Amino acid sequence: MLRLQQLAAGYGNIKALKNIDLTVPAGSIVSLIGANGAGKTTVMKVIMGLIKPESGQILFKGQNISGAATHKIVSLGLSLVPEGRSILSRMTVLENLEMGACQRNDNEVQADLQRIFQRFPILEERKSQLGGTLSGGQQQMLAIGRALMSRPELLLLDEPSMGLAPLVVADIFKVIQEINQEGTTVLLVEQNVRQALKIAKYAYVLETGRISLHGQAVDIAKDSRVMEAYLGGKK
Ligand SMILES: Nc1ncnc2c1ncn2[C@@H]1O[C@H](COP(=O)(O)OP(=O)(O)OP(=O)(O)O)[C@@H](O)[C@H]1O
Ligand SMILES: [Mg+2]
């Protein structure tokens, strides 16, 4: 569904990504792991057109989207749950969700909203409250709901479990798996490496802008370098 080929990007003189090759097959969950500053968020931003690639290609369902405008990329079927959630704290829960559908002009937006409320009943209960009054976990649910409102085929999640209590983290991972089982392909950036490898089919390890390791997630989880660097040592 998504293929990055020899993708390079950065910020001025900072070469954050160097010749990245990465594939997300349709229907799968692919996890991207790596230390702070490795370039994970930059991968997400460049896919979404938030920063322009310096070289290389981004193919979505065979179509080259590198350098395309973000609204175009969203309309093609990609959606990002950004790092830090970016909830509009002075808008209501409902308004935040509606923002996710602002590019749609079909007549199924209300039906999709009801589906989001079924998945996250707390969002329906709180729909008139301001986004900023929600707990961290509820804000993450809202950020995921908002992203789903654009009906993505490929959902990008950037550190969805960050800063959340363990029970809430478990909920978030369950929700990601459910969304995937219902047919949405997922590219997941996570610092919770153990969980990220458990739910993924494939995984990539990013080290200072380069892919150092990739393969089936079960194999990556057994790799001694990954165990030492990200899983707290040997088994
Ligand atoms: N807006 C920016 N301007 C300049 N440099 C940036 C900017 N954003 C990120 N960088 C740099 O690019 C590199 C990759 O950053 P990025 O945010 O993609 O890493 P990350 O893997 O998402 O890290 P984290 O785990 O902390 O979220 C880092 O060296 C970072 O300092
Ligand atoms: Mg990041």
From TrEMBL:
A Pfam family assignment: ABC_tran
Signal peptide residue numbers: none
One function term, GO molecular function aspect: branched-chain amino acid transmembrane transporter activity
InterPro entries for this protein: AAA+_ATPase, ABC_branched_ATPase_LivF/BraG, ABC_transporter-like_ATP-bd, ABC_transporter-like_CS, BCAA_Transport_ATP-bd_LivF, P-loop_NTPase
Occurrences of domain ABC transporter (ranges): 2-233
Keyword DNA-binding: no
Keywords (A to Z) from UniProt: Amino-acid transport, ATP-binding, Nucleotide-binding, Transport
PROSITE patterns: ABC_TRANSPORTER_1, ABC_TRANSPORTER_2
Family recorded in the similarity comment: Belongs to the ABC transporter superfamily.
Record's protein name: ABC transporter related protein
Species this chain originates from: Pelosinus fermentans B4
